[in-house]
Design brief:
alpha/beta, 17% strand
Length: 286
Amino acid sequence: MNKPYHRPIRKTKPEPIKKNSPDNNTEQIEQSNDDLIYGRHSVLAALSNEHQLNRIWVISRLRHDPRFHGLLVQAKENGAVIDEVDDLRLSHITHGANHQGIAAQICPYSYLELMDLVEKAKNISDSPVLVILDGITDPQNLGSIIRTTEAMGAQGLIIPQRRAVGITSTVMKVAAGALERLPVARVVNLSRALEELKKEGFWLYGTSAGKNQYLQDIDFKGAVGLVIGSEGEGLSLLTERSCDQLVSIPQSGKTPSLNASIATAVALYEVYRQRRTGKLFLGENH
């Protein structure tokens, strides 16, 4: 007698239960958004200047530190989520960076309009200095330029929207708090922005390698715009044509050009030196 046929039962694995705990929500935020600043100096500068922050991760010891406690309370009142975590958790959030016990998730940077920046610069100084960048793509370079620009007392920075890096968390970290004191405008058309600056009385000096007048031979009086080119290409032809004068940094070695952030520092220091000392030339026998 034949036995009746029974279709084998296929066993299926149960689907894992998805947990919706606060820790998992935090994990999703960390994985989907890398706009982090970390380190005591950078976060303290952001807190002190009431920069809008989404979330702050801090170790217990630092949360109750007098330098941070009041500012963290204020940040929470302004809408930031404060998470008290341990060092291991912070290392995970910052991907092993030197977090120094605190990290924060920043809101998108708020740029000024060009004419608002110009007005603000003129209200600060009768002879304002603005730095204009042409095609800087490295966030480390941009952060260094911002830090130097603020340290040398310039009134603002202008960057193009296209083919250039904007203000990111990496830029903020490298700038080490300088962005809280230095306004930045981002323009769609750099050439048009340069023409607007001319109309507002700024004399535009473009830094360029070649047989141009040396930096120390220029009398940086009045409203000054220093135009700095990208690391590899330098100033674009259109930007060069928009400048009132091209200047070069004298070099004795065989290296053909300087890093953009170094060139910015040298140029700004010459402007600062002239205005501080009242002397045009570095030496008596020039």
